[in-house]
């Protein structure tokens, strides 16, 4: 038999598990976020249906990610850190930042919930990560909050937002062809 606070914690964990599953989380991610064991998730399989497949590992992925993937990762992690800074718990901050991200992009999201979880773990140094590997810092050129390797000095040359802005500018030859000075 459990007391009231244990009961409340279990209800909170189940509600969090359901939210994560609705955002596309796999069972391993839900287990790491909520502490609920596999058999408990199976017990509530009519309410909580995790996605299938292998969870991603992000530390190497980020360095080979596309520009748009790095921008979306940066926005997600900046919001995650912002909510944590306001005093929300880490799991709640992740769920809310991912929910906001998905509401903005709909079906065009490039970052899965499992990937966002992995990024958050390696940015905060928690859950599956013993220490942080990433940091979110403002770019000195455009001031956007960018995700980068921990310890790297922010520079516009590495900032995905600056790169996107530069790619939107016509190249010099195209500018000359069009008579643009
Ligand atoms: Zn920048």
Please give a structural write-up.
This protein has 181 residues and is mainly alpha-helical. It has two domains: 1-55, no CATH class; 61-181, no CATH class. The chain has helices at 4-22, 27-34, 38-43, 61-64, 67-85, 90-105, 113-124, 160-168, 172-177, and strands spanning 134-138, 145-149. It has a two-stranded antiparallel ribbon. Strand 1 (134-138) and strand 2 form a beta hairpin. Helix 5 crosses helix 7 and helix 5 packs across helix 8. The protein starts with a helix and ends with a helix. The mean pLDDT is 88. Zinc ion is lined by residues 139, 141-142, 144, 156, 159, 161-162.
What does the secondary structure layout of this molecule look like, with pairings?
Elements: H1 4-22, H2 27-34, H3 38-43, H4 61-64, H5 67-85, H6 90-105, H7 113-124, E1 134-138, E2 145-149, H8 160-168, H9 172-177
Antiparallel strand pairs: 1-2
Residues 139, 141-142, 144, 156, 159, 161-162 line the site of zinc ion.
